[in-house]
Write a structure and sequence with these properties.
There is one protein chain. It contains eight helices and ten strands. α1 packs parallel to α2. It is an alpha/beta fold. The radius of gyration is 16 Å and the shape is globular.
């Protein structure tokens, strides 16, 4: 079945996410925009995924539990899971393997953990945008061991991308997919990095505000519109 998607969305738990990016709000905005399946990918944590999945069940939209991991090279990697338990186990692993720096709310903003009805249930007091000790060289294997899949985020950008930070994307990294920003130049990337022609290219919003969430323009063919169906495709 053909499913409209946005697989790179941040909630108010990400320090760069606006406070109105609550699980309830972002799920229902995605529904209003006509999306069928979205992924919640906060920086280095999955702790708002339970609320987003529940909100999605109530709204009738599939929410894939995920994360935007920051590797030791400060490369951003989209990590997606077919089951919430897998995502939360990976989240706990990342929490143990991340540089802990106290969050400055006056600079970076609050990092809010919420339930599906917009109630604040907690905060994370260490900054979530710092690097982990997970390397690009072993990130695919590590995420696979937790039952998920991963691919480099916004490879067309000049910061926090595998190309900007490491100079290229190679087969040795083990990626079968890559993300280009919604407004990125796909043809330019394909010409510069032919390896991308053998990869599945995803386009997602990296939304940090409600208006940034993708419109129903990009779609993907799935056997079933579910998190597990998405993982099976990859």
């Amino acid at each position: 079945m053909n499913c409209f998607y946005d697989l790179h969305i941040h909630s108010c738990l990400s320090p760069c996410g606006e406070n109105d990016m609550t699980p309830y709000n972002l799920v229902n905005m995605a529904k209003l925009k006509g999306l069928d399946i979205i992924a919640l990918t906060d920086h280095n944590t999955c702790k708002n995924c339970p609320a987003a999945i529940k909100a999605g069940e109530e709204a009738g939209i599939v929410v894939v539990p995920g994360m935007e991991l920051c590797t030791s090279e400060e490369v951003h990697i989209i990590c997606l899971f077919g089951e919430l338990k897998e995502a939360m186990n990976f989240s706990a692993y990342v929490e143990q393997n991340i540089i802990k720096i106290k969050n400055r709310e006056d600079i970076f903003g609050e990092q809010l953990v919420m339930d599906s009805k917009d109630n604040i249930t907690g905060k994370i007091d260490y900054l979530l945008t710092t690097a982990s000790n997970i390397s690009v060289s072993n990130v695919v294997q590590t995420v696979n061991e937790f039952g998920g899949i991963c691919y480099p985020a916004h490879i067309d950008r000049k910061s926090y991308s595998v190309i900007s930070n490491l100079g290229s994307i190679t087969s040795e990294m083990g990626f079968s997919a890559a993300e280009i920003s919604n407004n990125g130049n796909l043809e330019d990337c394909l010409q510069k990095y032919p390896i991308l022609r053998s990869m599945r290219i995803m386009n997602s919003s990296d939304a940090h505000s409600l208006e940034m969430i993708s419109e129903a323009e990009k779609s993907i063919e799935l056997e079933e519109c579910s998190a597990r169906g998405l993982i099976k495709l990859f």
